[in-house]
Automatic annotation (TrEMBL):
Keyword Hydrolase: no
Cofactor(s) recorded in Swiss-Prot or TrEMBL: Mg(2+)
GO cellular component, one term: cytosol
PANTHER family tied to this protein: HYPOXANTHINE PHOSPHORIBOSYLTRANSFERASE (PTHR43340:SF1), HYPOXANTHINE-GUANINE PHOSPHORIBOSYLTRANSFERASE (PTHR43340)
Biological classification of the source: Bacteria, Pseudomonadati, Bacteroidota, Sphingobacteriia, Sphingobacteriales
Protein name: Hypoxanthine phosphoribosyltransferase
Keywords for this protein: Cytoplasm, Glycosyltransferase, Magnesium, Metal-binding, Nucleotide-binding, Purine salvage, Transferase
Molecular function terms from GO: hypoxanthine phosphoribosyltransferase activity; magnesium ion binding; nucleotide binding
Subcellular location: Cytoplasm
Catalytic reaction equation(s): IMP + diphosphate = hypoxanthine + 5-phospho-alpha-D-ribose 1-diphosphate; GMP + diphosphate = guanine + 5-phospho-alpha-D-ribose 1-diphosphate
């Protein structure tokens, strides 16, 4: 399917059913790996809010959830190395098993910044769970990355929480920019 988001045209890359099935599988994996550990899911706003809502409901062990806000893209379709932290953590993560939930890893700069900041707070463990990653775009390897929903090509995507000019987050599928 094709959709217009702001001034650009996008087409379906990953369907709603594919997303659902993959998240169910991630939830089963996390439930097995974190059984007895009561993990703390830490979502990175805004992009991860829909992923987090579905991921959390795919997990069937005791767990908690909180959010932080970081931004590296400011309205466009290319990455910058400027990472900005908008809200401080509301939960003490010391000695907690933290699972960072991200919408997408592009260069890796945003996540590398966050993981370094989190380590200082001495959690029992940190792992990253991302819905999407672009292996060809990565600039910084993230050893904590343990769970990936889908690896995609180096192209700009929207939908399922991800925006273009703050629009398109409500789309149920994941769409790629047409003509890339
Ligand atoms: P990184 O720091 O890894 O380069 O970029 C991470 C952040 O940039 C993501 O959390 C996301 O907010 C944004 N981003 C990266 N690639 C895309 C993309 O293809 N589409 C959208 N909408 N945002 C992206
Ligand atoms: Mg993000
Ligand atoms: Mg964005």
């Amino acid at each position: 399917m094709k959709v217009k988001v702001a001034d650009l045209e996008f087409e379906t890359l990953i369907t709603q059913l594919e997303i659902q099935n993959r998240i169910e599988a991630l939830g089963r994996e996390l439930s097995r790996d974190y059984n007895g550990k009561s993990p703390l899911f830490l979502g990175v706003l805004n992009g991860s809010f829909i992923f987090m809502a579905d991921l959390l409901r795919a997990v069937d062990i005791p767990c908690e959830v909180t959010f932080t806000k970081l931004a590296s893209y400011f309205g466009g379709t290319t990455t910058t190395r400027n990472v900005r932290s908008d809200i401080e953590l509301a939960v003490d993560i010391r000695d907690r098993h933290v699972i960072v939930a991200e919408d997408i890893i592009d260069s890796g700069n945003t996540l590398a910044y966050l993981v370094e900041r989190l380590k200082v707070l001495k959690p029992a463990s940190i792992k990253v769970c991302t819905l999407l990653s672009k292996p060809d775009a990565i600039e910084i390897q993230i050893p904590e990355l343990a769970y990936t929903g889908f690896e995609i090509a180096n192209e700009f995507v929207v939908g399922y929480g991800l925006d273009y000019k703050e629009q398109g987050r409500n789309l149920k599928e994941i769409y790629r920019l047409v003509g890339e």
